[in-house]
Amino acid sequence: MSQKNASFKPDPNLDLVLERVIDVPPELVWKAWTEPEHLKKWFSPRPWMTTECEIDLRPGGSFKTVMRSPEGQDFPGHGCILEVVKNEKLVWTDALSGGYRPNGEPFMTAMLILEPSGKGTKYTAIAIHTSEDIRKKHEEMGFHSGWGTALDQLVEYAKSL
Amino acid sequence: MSQKNASFKPDPNLDLVLERVIDVPPELVWKAWTEPEHLKKWFSPRPWMTTECEIDLRPGGSFKTVMRSPEGQDFPGHGCILEVVKNEKLVWTDALSGGYRPNGEPFMTAMLILEPSGKGTKYTAIAIHTSEDIRKKHEEMGFHSGWGTALDQLVEYAKSL
Predict the structure, then answer these.
(1) Which residues of A touch B104 (CB under 8 A)?
(2) Domains present along chain A, CATH in parentheses
(3) Smallest CA–CA separation between B75 and chain A, in Å?
């Protein structure tokens, strides 16, 4: 079984899922997600900004971002890339940092699955959590509107690529 | 750059390393490490025992063990396989469980590197930690003697395969 076919079944008690068909092809979504200069353009729901981004696109590589709040406060994140199947699947987690080093306070693993759909993409993003409490906290923080707005921004930006 | 050549540089403040040349070939070490019925025979330094083991040998797959103390207390562990390069490299972590789900209390990532050395193997096992405190705790728990004794047991058992 290839990695991309080893499908993950989200647990509704523990995980959050954003699924949508968008009218940009998988290749452009992949580009927007995996190249720092592109990711910075859409990753944070405005008026938040992504001011820095570093991606070492291989299992064990760093996935670093700095998100800046409207008040100017910086929130750095240092995660680890886990799986890379070009144009199809990207998995990273904040439970580890680069080189698979465990992080002190794990919050989630993010799994992105891209499937061709007509001229566009069936886009599935899954946030995988340790517990029901953390899932609820993420939901209350605004997972659906936040990730949805970021996806709107991705689509708008990807069309300019 | 292939995964196996993306070498990891241990940080002496954060990581612990066991390196030894052993007189069994990489193929047998791999077998002893990746097949549950074999792993159970050597994984816990006696008189501890490994009573259960489940390994789904792919990135994202479960790595489960139950270790039993001499007093009969069971210590279940549920980690996640991260990298699999047959006969060469195995990486798993307890910062995630199967399906890349973050674990509540991450302790370490274990990286095993096997290189042919004559008719034997240069065996390198690296325990990767979040902080100097956790590295020290692991050292005080007896990393070197524990992992060393388990490796003695592996060598003895692998020769019977």
Answers:
(1) 106, 130-131
(2) 15-158 (3.30.530.20)
(3) 19
